[in-house]
Amino acid sequence: MSAAYLECVEIEPRQKATSSVIWLHGLGADGHDFPPIVPALGLPEDHAIRFVFPHAPRIPVTLNQGMVMRAWYDIVELDLKRGHDEKGIRDSSGRLEELIVRENERGVPSECILLAGFSQGGAISLFTGLRYSERLAGILALSTYLLLESSLERERSGINADIPIFQAHGTFDPMVPFDKGTAARDRLRELGYSVQWHEYPMQHQVVLEEIQAIGAWLKRVLH
């Protein structure tokens, strides 16, 4: 499996990158979805964070009548707790791991790499970050949920048992219901993870207050 075909939109810092954020978009979007929010994060001008926004592969999505679109895995039914596309999930997780290795090869150690994502992208970032065999800087999980939850306790990585997690969700989200987000938060806390939880009166989106909170968190966890 090669990450070579996963084209990415990248934002380089003014100085040599010493940390990286790999940020995965949601279903049907692409790597151009989140770069516009970077200026609103409030990072200092001399930050050394590289932002990497990969494009998901184009696949047929069952829930959308088989329409081909960018997706990290297939979605079979509205109940997001069941019918997970395990092969698609693990394939995308493998591709994300390859992007981590690519950052290592560009001089950024794993402990300075943060995985981020929105909706489907957040689900893959959580799935991968909790299981990754090397220490990571953190996980940013926006408007998302847990995948293959039954395997998490068995597969999770001890080295990332105390990984910083920022989780946010909209109380009026019609796509990934709010209770899916709180259920993920509660399960993670039950397993001993420290989750910084944020909720906003929004739908399936991000808002300025949330972006500013993300920026403040990034400044704490990326050095």
What key phrases describe this protein's structure?
single chain; 223 residues; alpha/beta; Rossmann fold; 7-stranded mixed sheet; 5 helices; 9 strands; 28% helix; 21% strand; globular
- Runs with pLDDT <50, length 5+? none
The CATH architecture name reads 3-Layer(aba) Sandwich
Task: Report the radius of gyration as a whole number of Å.
Answer: 16 Å
Strand order of the largest sheet: 1-3-2-6-7-8-9
N-to-C span: 31 Å
CATH class reads Alpha Beta
Helix content: 25-40%
Oligomeric composition of the shown chains: single chain
The CATH topology annotation reads as Rossmann fold
The shape, in one word, is globular
Average pLDDT, rounded to a whole number, is: 94
Q: Pairing-aware structural class of the strands and helices? A: alpha/beta
How many helices? The count is 5
Order of helices and strands: EEEEEHEHEHEHEH
Number of strands: 9
User: Which percent range describes the beta-strand content?
Assistant: 15-25%
What is the domain tally? 1
Q: Characterize the largest beta sheet: strand count, sense, and whether it forms a barrel.
A: 7 strands, mixed
